[in-house]
Please model this.
Amino acid sequence: MAAAPELLDYVQSETDLDVIAVTDHDDIGGALAAREAWAKGRYRFQLVTGVEVTTMEGHLLALFVDEPLPCFRPVREMLETVHRRGGLCIIPHPLCWLTLSLNRRSISRINAAAGDGVYFDAIEVANQTPTARRAVHKAAELNRREFHLAEVGGSDAHFLTVIGTAHTEFDGETAADLRQAILDRRTRGVNGLHPPLYRLGLSQIARQTWRGITVTPRAAGWRPTAYSFIRRIFSYPK
Model:
């Protein structure tokens, strides 16, 4: 809900983040625009490009990629594609049934047959989406007991004031440090305070809700979008 320069200026002045990742839904354009604006400025933080891509099983965060990714493909195929391009694959808002999220069965199936590019690099255990907060707590328990993935946090910010309210702690200050910490499983997801809804603004919330309903269907086609939602209804809870 903000242009790239506005986003970067907010991070610079209102947060103490060392690294940010820009991951629009099924569109690399926003990340590339942010990278271009970042390169023209003098910012103290580094920027990672990526996409929150919609797979047939749920959303997947692809970090350290700068090329378009196809949406509504099987998650196994997407994991192979992202890793082949040198990216990392993060499970966002896991187990959240109100959002297109990977469920326990899907995560366990991939973990059981991990190899040849088909694996997750990390899982969110901190996420500031109101519908995801309870689910990520359960995901954290499952991760420590079963999945054993690197743990990260993300504000999942659709509004400027949410940026940084959940984050990933790691040793270092650069994007390269973050990447290595994820690979070494030396990260920690941290939740902060989500701003009250009145601070976001009712008009902004309405605009974001409309975009959330319409952007992915327009990009991917209404038929696969509808099929995916129906599939989710019959696959939860798992």
In short: Residues 128 and 156 are 6 Å apart (CA to CA). DSSP finds nine helices and eight strands in the chain. The longest strand covers residues 46-54.
